[in-house]
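Weekly modeling sync, notes
Attendees: S.R. (lead), two postdocs, one rotation student

Agenda item 3: backlog of single-chain predictions. S.R. asked that every request posted to the team notebook include the full sequence so nobody has to chase files. The rotation student volunteered to paste the first one in as an example of the format we agreed on. Action items at the bottom.

Example entry:
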Amino acid sequence: MCGRFSLATEQSIIEEQFDVLIQEELSYRYNIAPSQDVFVIGSNGQDRIGRFMRWGLVPPWSKDLKIGYKMINARSETINEKVSFKTPFLKKRCLIISDGFYEWKRNGKEKHPYRFVMKDRQPFALAGLWECWNKGDQHLFTCTILTTEANKVTEEIHNRMPVILRKDDFYMWLDPNYHKVKELKSLLVPFDEGLMEAYEVSNLVNSPSNDVKECLEPINSK
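Predicted structure, as returned to the notebook:
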């Protein structure tokens, strides 16, 4: 699963790399956790639209917002079969922007956090789905991150990884009018391990309350 990530990249870089104009000011986030707001890029069929959504998808039919805690991730292999995901998979796909994600490696009774990044340290797009939950005057936009099998960089730490989309695939993934399941699912594969690397980080990451720059630093740099 993917349960924690960061986005601490200059806003101008994100706008240029993902061809989106951001209306709201982005603040640096070093340790983003489920139920918190994440920066998402969607499309109306013509333009890319950036906005914040709560991490943890809440289906429109749900009576309880707490279901979102169980739906921070969606398995790409069965995405078109699950009741909660098959409709947004066809109509409400998005990019969830990150510059690194965390996983924990078990060593006996202890678990040590690692951060996974691009070798060039550029931000990247996680494949996501979104929904809008309405109750009276309350409108809540939520999202989930798709996962797939681990590549050679992540498999030593965890057997799953978030789906990272290639830039060439953004257009198809974001197009709300594109409904070819086979072609869409062909994008949901492990990312090129040759472009990624991992390093151990501080246990500060273990607590969501620690949203500090030190979460990004390699543990052997201290």
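Discussion: group reviewed the output briefly. The two ends are 29 Å apart (CA to CA).
Action items: rotation student to repeat for the remaining queue; S.R. to check formatting next week.
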